[in-house]
Each structure stands twice: as structure tokens, then as C-alpha cells.
Design a protein that fits this description.
12% of the residues lie in helices and 29% in strands. A hairpin with a 6-residue loop joins strand 1 and strand 2. By secondary structure, the protein is an alpha+beta fold.
Length: 110
Amino acid sequence: MITFDMIPFFPRRGGDGTQGLVVLNNGYTLSIVKGEHTYGGVNGLYEMAIFFEGDIVEEHPILEGTSGVVGWLDEKEIEELIKKLRLYRPAGYKTKKSCLSDEGFVSLEK
């Protein structure tokens, strides 16, 4: 299971808050941010943008009617969304054995 404390956060470009990235082996990348100009950031909460193969996800059954950016999330809610998204298998998508990693990215899948 992926827990919130496993996600490394780093300063965002422009100096507004922090960002953590999670690359899942089913094509999803999750960008988790907190800052003055993020949804919930001034209240100590996070927003998470969901990408599939590099494109932002506008609609997804797990998102329950929200866009690809979900705000006002606490650590537990982020863990729950990660758990649901990592188990979701898009139709026709072949799971990758390894994920692209780069500075600032963390691959938590094997």
C-alpha cells in the first residue's frame, strides 16, 4: 500500500508551496500540490491532478463527477484516491513493469 509519507515533496517552481509526484504502473501520474494558490492550500490541504499517459484526466469514474483536479484533500483522502487509482486498469492498457522516473518523480509501483 502507498502511504502519504512515502511521497517525497519538493518546492514548486516559482516558490509557491510544495509538490509530490506519484507514477503508477497503469499509466497514471498523480501530481499532489499544496500552496497559497492551490485548492485548499491556505487551509493546509492538498490538491491532486490526475494524468493518464501525460494528459490530464477530465473525467474518471473514480473521481465521481469532479474534473482531473481534486482539491481540499487531506493525507488520508489522498491515500484513498491513490489506492483506488492504482487498482484501476484502463481497458486495453498493458501494465508497465517499470515506470519512468526523473528528478522529483517517485515510482511507487513495481
